[in-house]
Design goal:
heterodimer
Chain lengths: ~200, ~190
């Protein structure tokens, strides 16, 4: 007599023979798909939110940097910029033919610390100086005048120059007397302003 | 589809899913659902509630952890099967420890599911088979799966594994025997 059970009695045989017929219920398929798709959707939203936050952070960082830069620029003379000044070397100096220790080192250039404020820097655009003037309290007239000079000289923008000169003359510390640095436009505006003042006095 | 094509395709689908593309996910899902469901149902020995629970959990884990799926190490279907196998093992181990608790042994049935005797007996039997499958070594489980779930012939399995049909037949015999022994160990009498 064998110890092995007959195939019909053995639950393992019965199970293995019917394995191919085991199928999941149909409704589970759709339910799980919807559930998992929702998670994929959330992932996409999280991703988008991450981008928005990153861009916002960049914008904020830029705004803060700009504000700090403008603040530093307005209080420019207190923090002088070190400018590298190199003297031009003659093309064929007698030293050029010397060798070894006799030859002066080319990298021994003179370096001088020259305080340069933003308003004296020719590379700073007129718009920036005008914005600085708008934010300044004690140097308003000087900065507006500087911005006007730049508009007229660099861009030939008479309209913008007139706007800046007028604002400069509106400041309490504005000087209406002509100076050697005044250009034709500023002189004309000063003259007109002086005339207005005189007329007002006479009327009074 | 060649191996490199499969890797390329699954890598692209994975990237799309990570970017939040629902259609890419649906493609992977539709392709693998039937195979995975059949596997889980088999491993649960036809216990519908258990198999649906495991199936759902497998897909939820898969969608959350798809970033860790590496197409170069294996197919998406194989990766899913690995997740399901782990879940099944833990699930039936938990059930086995619950079954051996005094409450379960006193009345011989699960208190939450009062059932007629016949249904209970068949459920108990299915549970024992599922636990026995969870105890099987992986190579036995794999060959039984190839033969009975994927309905492959011995020759096909031998070709896929680059072995002789005789070796596969021998492996199948040993796998069935191991399953039978594991099943007998799970019988309530063996707990006493």
């Amino acid at each position: 007599m064998s110890d092995l059970p007959t195939p019909h009695q053995d639950p393992i045989e019965r199970f293995l023979e019917s394995s191919g017929a085991l199928t999941p219920s149909g409704h589970a398929r759709q339910a799980i798909l919807l559930q998992t798709q929702a998670l994929v959707r959330h992932r996409r939203l999280r991703r988008k939110l991450g981008w928005v936050m990153a861009l916002s952070a960049c914008y904020l960082a830029g705004a803060v940097t700009m504000r700090l830069w403008l603040h530093t620029a307005i209080s420019g003379p207190e923090t002088p910029i070190v400018q590298r000044a190199t003297e031009p070397q003659p093309a064929l100096s007698p030293d050029a033919f010397k060798t070894g220790s006799e030859a002066p080192r080319r990298d021994q250039e003179q370096v001088a610390a020259v305080p340069v404020s933003i308003e004296n820097d020719p590379d700073v655009p007129a718009e920036v100086v005008e914005r600085m003037a708008a934010q300044s309290r004690d140097q308003r007239a000087r900065l507006y005048r500087n911005a006007g000079d730049r508009y007229l000289r660099d861009l030939g923008d008479v309209e913008a120059a007139v706007r800046c000169y007028r604002r400069s003359l509106d400041s309490p510390e504005a000087e209406l007397a002509f100076t050697a640095e005044d250009n034709w436009l500023l002189m004309a505006l000063k003259q007109a302003r002086q005339k207005e003042k005189n007329d007002a006095k006479n009327d009074a | 589809m060649s191996l490199s094509e499969r890797i390329w395709r699954e890598s692209a689908l994975k990237s799309a899913v990570l970017a939040g593309d629902e259609r890419a996910w649906q493609t992977l899902y539709e392709e693998c659902f039937d195979g995975l469901a059949a596997y889980v149902a088999w491993r649960c020995a036809g216990l519908r509630q258990d198999s649906e629970e495991i199936l759902q959990e497998t897909w939820l884990i898969a969608v959350r952890r798809i970033g860790s799926f590496d197409p170069e190490r294996g197919s998406f279907a194989g990766w899913l099967r690995g997740i399901a196998a782990n879940l099944l093992r833990n699930h039936f181990r938990r059930q086995a420890s619950r079954a051996s608790s005094p409450e379960m042994l006193s009345n011989g049935q699960c208190p939450q599911v009062p059932s007629p005797d016949a249904v209970l007996e068949s459920r108990e039997q299915a549970l024992q088979i599922a636990r026995a499958l969870a105890e099987l070594p992986e190579h036995y489980e794999a060959v039984l799966r190839d033969k009975y779930v994927e309905q492959r012939s011995v020759v096909q399995i031998a070709e896929a594994r680059q072995q002789t049909p005789k070796a596969i037949e021998s492996l199948l015999t040993r796998a069935r025997q191991a399953l039978r022994e594991a099943y007998q160990r799970m019988e309530p009498d063996s707990h006493e």
